[in-house]
Amino acid sequence: MTVDNGWTDVAGLKPPEAVKEPSRRRAQGDTFSDPYEWMRDKESDRVQEYVAAQNAYCEQRMAGLKTLRGTLFEEIRSRVQQTDMSVPTRMNGYWYYTRTQEGKQYGIQCRVPIRGADDWDPPTIAAAGGDRPVGEEIVFDCNEEAEGHQFFSIGGMDMSHDGRLMAYSVDVTGNERYDLRIRDLETGEDFPETIHEVAGGGCITPDGKWVFYTKVDAAWRPYCVWRHRVGTSADDDVQVYHDPDERFWVGVGISFDEQQIIVESGSKTTSEVLMLSVDDPEGEFKPFIERTEGVEYDVSFAEFEDEAGNIPVALVIHNVSNPNFEIDVIDMRTHQPPYTLGEGVCVAQGSLAGCEPPHGGRPTPQTRATRYQSISTLSDIPDNPEILQGVQGLRIEGIAMYRHFVALSYRADSLPQLAVMPKRAAKEDFLAGRPWGFGGIVPRVDGKLYSIGMSGNPSYDAPRMRYTTVSYTQPGELHEYDPETDTDVLLKRATVLGDFDPADYAEKRMWVRVRDGEHVPVSLVWRRGLIPALEGAREGLTDEVIEVPRELTLSYEDMSARYDRREAPMFITGYGAYEISSDPSFSVPRLSLLDRGVLYAVPHVRGGGELGRGWYEQGRKLNKMNTFIDFIDVTAALQRNGIADPKRTVANGGSAGGLLMGAVANMAPQLYAGIEADVPFVDALTSILDTSLPLTVTEWDEWGDPLHNAEVYRYMKQYSPYENVQDADEREREYGTRHFPAMFITTSMNDTRVLYVEPLKWIARLQEPDAEVDAVAKIEVEAGHGGVTGRYKRWQEISYENAWCLSAMGIEE
């Protein structure tokens, strides 16, 4: 329900104003008046009317950008190779690949039989038109499956070992509750049974006789595992595992060697692995190692092949004594269950610098001392491989052992890294008790910031390792590397059509010394010749440091008066939560911004994982304000150093990054001309207090528990965006300006991760006349947390959003 709004926006239109109804949230001796809590009744007529009114208002406001939206969409479409295919990947007896066809929204999953047991060279298959290869089989065509649905998402696919049966799950609403089915690929028909409302994923046993899947509870938490016999009614399914702890999410899958059914149960800070032999699917799951509060671990199994008898090993990655994890290799011939974390031979360990003492073990003088070191302290761990020496922010990510090679993934110097060595050499080092001789893979991206990682290696017997690299300005590449011969072959480079040339663009990572003295990395991307302040600048990973300005309280008007518009318009985006790193990636839509002279900036703020566990710990719970301050200080430093123009600076973030957007808008409105907040977590305190809401309890490990801890409550109340929006008069008193960034907000009615009601209440508060905020919201009625599905729909959405951002920068063509 809306009422007449006396305040008109910059376009002379009146935004819808929601009715206010008295409602109070009481907790920890505090009362918060919330006039828009009635919007939580999703099915009510007045909520539906309000959503329709907001969408109508958004369309009115965006009408003048229709031409720009169309231009941006055509720029994307003209640069994408729309009819294309992936490099085939061998799995058991088939080569699998994905086709895309011009005009179709989704990819088509295909396969062809292998040519023989030693067939490890992917077949050459024409991407466009022509005859299909002999034996090609369409495994799954999402375009056909999605017919009649506005939204379509695959939760997962899993094959029996012989490739005949496939378990798959689909979601057609966006609420992340999937229907699971089993298909006979020989006949193309589904089995009669359908299992409703499961979590995404699930697995089918190698013999194709059983399917294991997870279900979600009323709070949308995957909490239990069920067993289903293929070809029988789902009514006969049996629950085989249940985790009663509301903080833990449960998943199930088949081990890499196809010998174990694996259940993994984990919270944000604790994990446990349970196993059951595939030969005994009706047996009882047993933990590999019992869970310990505050300890995360994972385990995989492999063998060192040997003529005198193979050596079975367990590869365990854990943080019982090292917050940045270590990898232990356990010789299963000499170690017997029950196992403990820390036994075996440690082959790699992360840096302790800047980390809190480990939760699972007794802190030592060393761990206590290293907590007070800078995260940037260079690692010096004698037992580590040589490649891990002398780097900062060292975190061990994982290890994978194949028949012919061993690969190590880790983070160092704020970027993902990958190292590999021949399997025979690893066995020699293991038996000799010396550091393993890993060699790093350095991407061929001189002057670029890169992401690198293993990709497409599902077969244990593969003789060579596949990996991918990508940078902000160089499209992704798929390589195949043989560590025995040091041979590196490029299998595919993503195609960007038109006149695109990576040499026209530049990227660099520099550092900003923020107000508490920490150095925060920031990535900058731009088109050469369009950013005067960056002409001739050092590129790639640099040690260049700029300072945050001492004075951040200048008004928007005073700050803008200092600029002669030589500085660049800037699109600055961040996340900073859950230890998720914002690593380099390539984006075709981003080119349209860069070509218009926009500087693209990514502050790698605390709360993410770019510099390891310490970086995360300094931006969570009672350190969360660091995330917001880092983003603000990086923005201010770039502006005050003459690189970006505050009158043309637009910020962007989604989900937890949307909370970041709401916080910085309230804390430093003078730094931003506009802000785009996607599916934003902006009523954080209300949600985290209500245990009946989806995912609340699981989030306490990330944000703290304000329901039972008054200190956490008071801390979150300082930054929760919805309840900290100021009226224009209050901003003028605090910041010397009535300015507030123009706001573009997106949400989806079926989002289960950040409920629609949070951004809906926020937009209502921002559009109140006394707030004097120019805010619009685009609300998807047929989508979830990730927005719309289908590539052309996604291109339309990103064009819609980018058109608004460019307009906020003063660029409308």
Can you count the beta strands? 43
How many angstroms does the end-to-end distance come to?
Answer: 36 Å
- Over all CA atoms, what is the radius of gyration? 27 Å
Shape: globular
In terms of DSSP E residues, the strand content is 25-35%
What is the assembly state of the chains in this entry? single chain
Spatial arrangement of strands, main beta sheet: 37-35-36-39-38-40-41-42-43
Explain this structure:
The protein is of the alpha+beta class. A hairpin with a 2-residue loop joins strand 6 and strand 7. Helix 2 (66-79) packs across helix 16 and helix 9 (625-640) packs across helix 10 (656-667). 47% of the residues are buried. The mean pLDDT is 93. Residues 16-302 form the Peptidase S9A N-terminal domain. Residues 1-32 are annotated as: Disordered.
Brief rundown of the structure:
Belongs to the peptidase S9A family. This protein has 813 residues and is an alpha+beta fold.
Note the main attributes of this structure:
16 helices; 813 residues; alpha+beta
